[in-house]
Request: fold
Amino acid sequence: MKAIACFVVLSCLLLGFSAAVELRTWTDVQDRKFEATLLRLEGKNAVLQRKDGREVRYPLGKLCAEDVKYIEENRASLSSETPGKSAGPSAEKPGKGTAPSGEMPGKSKVESGKEFNFESAWPQTIKVSDDPEITTVEESPENKRFIYESANYRYVCDVRLTKAVVRGFALRFEATYQFCRSLPLAINGGAKAGGKQQILLFKEKDDYVKAGGPAGSAGVFISGRGVVIVPLTSLGVKPFGSGYMLDRGKDNDTLSHELTHQLTPKAYFKKGARGWFSEGLAEYVATTPYQLGTFHVHNNQKEIIEYVTGTGSKNQGGRSLGTRIKLPPLKSFMLQDYDSFLKQSQLSYGGALLLTDYFFHMDGDGDGKRIKAFLKALQENQDGEKALEQLTDGRSFEKLQADFAKAWKHKGIDFTFASE
Reply:
């Protein structure tokens, strides 16, 4: 009877709104309770934000009649903006080995530190539920179009998958989303469709390549379309009988790299950040130890060092730069165009990761104060040397190089810099 009552009340709730309604206890039709804030309505779904910050797209038909009535009574107070979201531009950025498509016009407006989360603490552990809710949106065998959704992602696949399989690989997607959004760096970009980040999945590697994926890659972010495309093999999904099964032992750090690009605001791809920061950030997320829905952030520097200097802790491929690294002058390295960055990809990606990690945790008082000021400058439409002034903070680039080299020398890595 509860389910019937919910359905009757819902019939008029077909328009999408967003709201800043208080944290409250919700009850579903199975009498399960949870705390969340109503963000907005999307058709017949309520988008709720749980206490841990995770957004959940909840079918109204699964909420009790009292909760649906509560939504109806609060319609008049619903506004047009979602709390906690940047009013700035969405991310457009290619994945590894793909050149950026150019600057995007428009000026970003920096709001409060709370909205952009610059004042939040650095996360130590990011954990999501090991049983994410999966919704089947469409299954059309004749069109080879099968659509599934988790809390923050829509997966469009060319073969039918069971919810158990989708649930298994959705863990990595949702954990990466929460990790990126929890970093106190305003990682709040991404061009959503229907309230979800878009993922395209392909059974055949050839179809993945035809869709724009580099032939030797495990996944890539397509900037012009705002989507991440992935072959199913990269997720550990393989044929089994008449269907598919998931190899849970399959690990794909590249996936988190590309998902980070998808979530990064486009302001962070401006000159002075494109390359060293945009790739360093993605490498930072991808290199952080991950297992079954959990990122262990508190001890990731050991993994970062092993990845840059050797083949990584899992021997699955690192930058293999050794402990004596020679970089271009930092000013040139940080201002170079993306094509130049890619010409020495191992050195560039490895150097970018160590430079990013330095500004996150080792520069100044180790509180990331300067990198946050730099990102705020980018959001305010500054770029190039002007934005980099926030990182030098009165220092010459030579002094910055010396500080950077000294910090990493204590960790066992010796840096030298080429002359101009």
The chain has a mean pLDDT of 83. The longest strand covers residues 33-42. Residues 163-182 form the longest helix (20 residues). The two ends are 76 Å apart (CA to CA).
